[in-house]
Design goal:
Strand content: 25-35%
Radius of gyration: 16 Å
CATH superfamily: Endonuclease/exonuclease/phosphatase
CATH architecture: 4-Layer Sandwich
Structural class: alpha+beta
Largest sheet: 7 strands, mixed
Length: 248
């Protein structure tokens, strides 16, 4: 990959429980490896009940060369949560963390978002990882809360990545996300026969999506109910977008 671009991925792990109902963190990590990403935003990375221990063990992640970005309150205690409300972020060592934060989101269900500012090969980059609610009304309120947070910060090139839980048009979310634009997605759910574009990216105007794909390499179709999605990003003015269904 060119030094002028970065690959970011988003993956709803479903707590590492596959479609065969087996909890296999080793299988989830194999899928993550297949993405060949610099940065992976995760959803449902922790188990559901407090204290929400990590579904994907810290040791397995670090042994595979990833760094866990400290965005929650669990730290690096064995078995501690990976992130915040199930949202977590893994990065490769060549990326440098500048700042982190987490955010509670409104709604009937407990939801949250994470923010990580990074130094990357394409310059400073702000990444928001989130998992929006099941009800559209609350999805809109949650996106509005994220945008209020961003408006209070100095501007950085920004990407929002995650499971937006939107089965229909993303136009209402796009309208709220002033200064960002939602990218055309690819079907990622359900993993066995994907039809819904639930997992997406939204970019600020100073970023360009160069290529994107939904990963179907083994064992992605069984490791979770979602396929992971990935995008190669560069600064604005780069080449035209291409779509790929990546197998290897």
């Amino acid at each position: 990959m060119s030094a002028s671009q970065i690959r970011i991925a988003s993956y709803n792990l479903q707590k590492c429980v596959g479609l065969d109902l087996r909890r296999r963190p080793d299988r989830s990590l194999k899928v993550i490896e297949g993405l060949r990403a610099d940065l992976v935003v995760l959803q449902e990375a922790d188990k559901r009940l407090p204290p929400r221990p990590a579904a994907l063990p810290h040791g397995m992640i670090e042994d595979d060369g990833w760094q866990i970005v400290p965005v929650g309150t669990g730290g690096h205690r064995p078995g501690a949560s990976l992130g915040w409300h199930g949202n977590a972020m893994l990065i490769r060592p060549h990326l440098r963390v500048l700042a982190t934060a987490h955010l509670d989101l409104p709604g009937l269900e407990p939801r949250g978002a994470i923010r990580v500012d990074l130094e990357t090969g394409i310059g400073p980059l702000r990444v928001i990882g989130l998992h929006l609610g099941l009800i559209r009304r609350y999805r809109l309120l949650q996106m509005a809360a994220v945008m209020r947070c961003l408006r209070e910060l100095p501007h950085l090139p920004t990407v929002i990545a995650g499971d937006f839980n939107e089965w229909k048009s993303v136009m209402p979310l796009d309208t709220i996300a002033q200064g960002l634009r939602f990218m055309p997605g690819l079907p990622s759910f359900p993993a066995a026969r994907p039809v819904a574009k639930l997992d997406r990216f939204a970019l600020s105007e100073d970023l360009q999506m160069l290529e994107q794909g939904a990963y179907i390499g083994h064992p992605a179709r069984v490791a979770s109910d979602h396929l992971p999605v990935w995008a190669d990003l560069g600064r604005s003015g780069a080449d035209n977008l291409r779509f790929v269904t990546q197998e290897t």
